[in-house]
Amino acid sequence: MRKMMTAAAVVLAGLPAMVMGETLKVKADAPVPEVMDALQAAVEGAGATVFARVDHTGGAMSVDMELAPAQLLIFGNPKLGTPAMQDDIEAGLLLPLRVLVYSDADGQTWLAYADPAELTALEGIAEDAPYIAMMQGALKKLTGAAAGM
User: Fold this and answer.
1) Which residues touch 43 (CB under 8 Å, ≥6 apart)?
2) For the chain, what are the domain ranges?
3) 87 contact partners, CB below 8 Å, separation of at least 6
4) Cα separation of 138 and 144, whole Å?
5) Domain 21-147 superfamily per CATH
6) C-beta atoms surrounding 82 within 10 Å
7) What does the DSSP 8-state code read for residue 119?
8) Hey, what's the signal peptide range on this chain (predicted)?
9) Residues 100 and 122: beta-carbon distance below 8 Å
10) Backbone phi, then psi, for 109, in 5-degree steps?
């Protein structure tokens, strides 16, 4: 039993590394709420589904804590995500897609997201899976539109 618990702990410890690989960032010249509104409009305009918009700063304020402006958009397109999950159900750990819009210590607004290539760390997903390039292209286009590029 103890060996099983140790093995489980080792596997679980590795999940954050798999889930949080390379972070890609796009600089924006507007405040977080404005950039997030533009991102949400771009996502919806592209026909993707917005599942949630999380206001991390509002959450912090609700417990009397401070946090720089930060909002997360969770969105996806089942036409892209479903094939990934068919190849490896654990792709659901990385899907739907997420973009964090935040203000850094200098007041600079950024859009940040995990590279969908991280999906290839999963056993069932090939490096040349066509949906990875499609997700990468979509994220680049959507974050660029939100940043005003």
Assistant:
1) 50, 73, 75, 142
2) 21-147
3) 122, 124, 125, 126, 129
4) 10
5) TT1751-like domain (3.30.310.70)
6) 14
7) G
8) 1-21
9) no
10) -90, 135
Backbone angles phi, psi at 11, to 5 degrees: -65, -45
| Token duo for residue 107 | 């007041």
Q: In what order do the strands lie in the sheet with 49-55?
A: 23-28, 109-114, 97-103, 70-76, 49-55
Mean pLDDT by 10 residues, the chain (149 residues): 40 45 93 98 97 97 97 96 97 96 97 96 94 96 94
**CB of 73 closer than 8 Å to CB of 36:** yes
Side-chain half-sphere exposure of 34, counting CA atoms within 13 A: 8
121, 15, 53, 77 alpha-carbon torsion, rounded to 10°: 30
Q: In the prediction, which pLDDT does 20 show?
A: 55
Q: Do the beta carbons of residue 139 and residue 97 sit within 8 Å?
A: yes
What's the token pair of residue 29?
């010249």
> How far is the first Cα of the chain from the last one, in angstroms, to the nearest whole number?
55
